[in-house]
Amino acid sequence: MTSSEDRSPPRTGQRIQKIMAAAGLGSRRACEEMIRAGRVTVDGHEACLGDTADPRAQSVEVDGVRVRPPTRTLVYLLNKPRGHVTTTKDEAGRPTVTSLVPAQPRVFPVGRLDRDTEGLILLTNDGDLSERVAHPRWELEKTYVATVDGVIRDATLRRLRAGVQLADGPANPIRVRILARRKASTLVEVVISEGRNRIVRRLLDAVGHPVRRLVRVAIGPIRDDKLAPGKWRRLSQAEVTALESATVTPNKRRRRRAGTLAASEAPARRGRRA
Predict the structure, then answer these.
(1) What DSSP assignment string belongs to 7-48?
(2) What pLDDT, in 10s, does the model give residues 153-194?
(3) Which residues of 31-54 are buried (b: 16+ CB within 10 A; e: fewer)?
(4) Which has more pLDDT, 269 or 179?
(5) Residue 264 CB burial class (10 angstroms; 0-12, 13-18, ≥19)
(6) Which of 158, 196, 219, 267 is most buried, by CB atoms within 10 Å?
């Protein structure tokens, strides 16, 4: 361990975690954990949170391997099939989402979908974009379509829209609407802006309607109904720009939601099918 007296922290350049995230080593939060764990050095000195460096003039290393800036930014859109785990490596040997996209340049998944959930997920080597899409403080909407057991009645729909208390705190979906009611099941759309573990499944289970199938169909403005399961494509620059523009401050989100929630619910009620 290098003492603070021996260290000569760089005072110009970019934050160390930003350099690491841009190189495809993970989200900024994941890179911050690597720094806290003492795995990162700058010119041979152990890095601390808050340190900066010039990645082209100084040697930033993780576990003894130099971090090199990416030659280009990549953002892939993948339609995740059921059974794949959202990680770069799985100790149990289960198939991963990264096995479905090119191995080089290296990318990492943005946020998580649980193993049984299908649908759209982003993979990128851009740590800043990953942070904006995945972190709940940016409140980017994610849209899911769930097939659940039983018929969701109007009283339950109102309860879902009002928010449901779960073991780890309240779940407050931005929008909920019924897409179809069948004899023994319901197709329901849920829009949320948080990423707690299995949040949509737990929300619907809490009101007595366990999920049979769950598919994420949109990430903010990004949607692709033609992308087959297991297939991927690169986002266009226009799509990346739209994705970045979709992030808003929490206060703005609350003001906008207060003004539009009632309007968004009315068409949903008219559009329900028995």
Answers:
(1) -----SSEEHHHHHHHTTS--HHHHHHHHHTT-EEETTEEP-
(2) 999 999 999 999 999 999 999 999 999 999 999 999 999 998
(3) bbebbeeeebbbeeebbeeebbbe
(4) 179
(5) middle
(6) 219
Cα dist. 3→46, 47, 48, 215 in Å? 9, 11, 11, 50
- How many CB atoms within 10 Å of residue 260? 12
Q: What is the DSSP string of 48-67?
A: -TT-EE-TTTS-EEETTEE-
Residues 6+ apart with CB under 8 A from 193: 136, 139, 140, 141, 142, 174, 253
Cβ 254 vs Cβ 105: under 8 Å: no
pLDDT in tens, 81-103: 999 999 888 888 899 999 999 98
pLDDT digits (tens, 9 = 90+) for 200-215: 999 999 999 999 999 9
Residue-range domains of the chain with CATH: 14-66 (3.10.290.10), 139-223+258-270 (3.30.2350.10)
